[in-house]
User: Fold these one by one.
Assistant:
Number 1:
Amino acid sequence: MSTETTSDTAELDEAYTVYPFSPVSPSEAALRYQAIAEDRPMTKITMPYGGEAWIIHRNAVAREMLGDPRFVREPFRTGERVVPYFVEFPDFLKTTLQFEDPPQHIKLRKLVQKSISPKRVKAMRDSAVEFANKLIDDMLAKGAPTNLVDDYAVALPIQMLANLIGVPPEDRPKFQKWSSATLAVANMPEEEATANMTELVMYMLALIEERRKNPREDLLSDLTNAQDKDDTLTDGEILSVALVLIIGGFDNTANFICAGVLSLLHNTDQLRVLLEDIDGVTPTAVEEILRHGRFELNGKVGGPSGLVPFVATEDVELDGQLVRKGEAIMGDPASANHDGSAIEHVDTFDIRRQSNPHLTLSYGMHHCLGAPLARMEMQVAIAELFRRLPDLELAGDPLMNNDNLTQPIVDLPVSW
């Protein structure tokens, strides 16, 4: 009996360290990620596109890799290598700042950070609160049920991002259309995706030219009229920055706003904690949503996932594992965010969690450029929604678009 029990336990332990794994419940997925990280720092798998890649499971190892200049993205940017990933990367993404390496990456990043400084984002918060409440007023006037994606979660970050970049209000609806099209990975004719991308590029180049002539208080004006000679940027360089902010900025933020609402509605004990002290708890709640919120989207969670990969320029040893020159490697935020050596009680959604070194927004020089803006938008969106609608509840099942690179929620029916 004892031998049989030991054997069963060994088989269970072995099953829990298989990666990738088929979709399981969120709590089981969290425990599997924890067991995998305990077992080894990374796993090499064959991706659906681009061949093999190492997937990092441990939080500390992912941070080490992301801070090591021996890992680069140039072979993907130049087209020398296909990006190893779960879907085919759109070509235009490889022209953005996300695929630049130092020193160009650092130069562009430094300039953008001046425009998306904590000070500027803080100054934008009042207008974000005002706009969030206008959206809630409109929802109340229209009546329940409503699709929170269209009426709130997408509208708020589009407004804020457009304000930051300097897009005229009348042109803002175009960005949702362009983003949806350019991030599509299936079910869209190539000609249609190309046409949308061309429209976006031509629009942005015209806006860049306008800001060179007539600068305003916005990011495009800052970039087109940099005073320091060393900071002078070409239209192409400015475009590479603007595209990654436009395409990824509002879509990902909207998705996390929805994930946050779902997480809170699925965890009523945590929703009560929020409602008791909305302003005090919202900042840590947003970090926990970034860490664990996507686990609430489908009811099932399956590996793998990953940030944009890199290529090793020489042999590098990470936590005892040799990564050879030319091999691709990426961090898996789902694993790193549920690594028990970095985060306690990984399977628990805890909006008061104080120590939360998640890697959802990456790390180091590759940390998400729009992170200060995204955090502010999420804090405002969650706080104002539940402040005004404390009885918010689901009015149906959420719907996701799995044919889009970011797998956004497209329908989140709610009532109050």
Note: The radius of gyration is 22 Å.
Number 2:
Amino acid sequence: METDQSSIQIKPGKGLWMAQHSGPHTSELIELFGSDRLPTAFDSSTPKEKVIAALRKRNPGFRVS
């Protein structure tokens, strides 16, 4: 596994899907938002597969799961 590849792991949150970030970009997110776990624009009723597909499209080069 590449340790320097950016990744996003989708996790359930309160009403929204959350995106847990890891990789080289993470320190910038923490500096900007104070966390590496950010809310997505997807309601928790959206199927996980649909959220993953949309985030993969918007984040080329990221591993999204």
Note: The chain has two helices and four strands.
Number 3:
Amino acid sequence: MHCCESQGLGFLTLSTVLPSFNSSGCQNAENAVTCSPSEFPIIFCFFSLYLIAVAQGGHKPCVQAFGADQFDGQDPEECKAKSSFFNWWYFGMCSAILVALVILTYIQDNLSWSLGFAIPCLVMGFGLILFLLGTVTYRFSVNSEEKSPFMRIGRVFVNAARNWRATSSTLSMQLESQGCVPYQGPQEFKFLNKALLVPDGSEEDGNICSISEVEDAKAILRLFPIWATCLTYGIVFSQSSTLFIKQGGTMDRSISPSFEVPAASLRSFITLSIILFIPIYDRILVPTARAITTKPSGITMLQRIGAGIFTSILSMVIAALVEMKRLETAQEYGLVDKPKATIPMSVVWLIPQYLIYGVSEALAMVGLQELFYDQMPNQLKSTGLALYLSILGIGSFLSSFLISVIEKATSRHGHESWFSDNLNKAHLDYFYWLLAGLSAIALAAYVYFARSYAYNRGSSI
């Protein structure tokens, strides 16, 4: 399974299958549901999938934050290691997924499903033991603040709103009267500086926000333009597990007379591309860039994300060109009206778009992870990673919405939709060109906000 997609598959499967379960094995009796003994294994299976979905929701954003917390950002050597942590974490995850695709899939299909589930169960148990054994060596962040970080940052917005009429001169005068130096922080989101004043109608100084609280609130606001401009990347991200596979399903996938490559297995090339690219990036490209820029990470996190978005555009362009070639081949061989016929065009044509897509993911996804961890306030690191994950979730919903709108718009007056069931009459190439154009616009907006982005002090860029 493709990296970062696995956590939602079980939940989505349940939402589709579970509503029909009562009709097959369970009966309602006076508002209670009774099931025959033969249905209990199915119930346990569904319950286990729900547990996986819940566990992933807590594990996925926290494990990266906890791992990165083990590095001291003030130490030059550990700062470099921290920059590599996200690369190798993603490398390890994708390597494990590739092993699961190759080995576990074979075991489940050819030996035993029970054995196929038992092996990851044992591996997870071993991993849990290793995790617990390392407890004595972990670094834990000391929380010096009694108040919740959400309360502290929320108070900044509340106080700034209450003091919205205050002027800059009023702010300077009050700070001087308190013996504080004039505020020297970044001048973006200056309206939040008013939270440093005593709120109107309050006679107690205890309601005044500190400069660090104001800086934390600004740090969160600075991330939202980056988050919004990356949503288009989230749309592109969802195509590899949907339309790419539909393309491959119509093409010649035979390797030998007796073996045909499953269309879904082509996603393994994305994982393979990531596994090959990350070591090259971390061991060759980063040290080279580090020697030029003198930055611990070689290039900044925003530059890395921008390179990933640009590479995703190349992937969409190549996908559109390959689809145009596929449609031409179908027309040349008179297969336009034969949706189930195999197009005499090798599925190898799809490999470049998968490989470039993998490079894009290694750049953008890891860059987003590092940015949303590094730039969030200390007590909100895992929340930042959850915010990064929301790019993929919302991007998937936006992709479905966009496809629905285009489907309805292009199927009017008896015309074939861009997403016709007969792909030989459809126009996935138009959709890929559209995504490439939208991504180019989003990249331009991203560059605009990235150029004016002010990194937090002490950031490990």
Note: Confidence is low (pLDDT under 50) at residues 1-35.
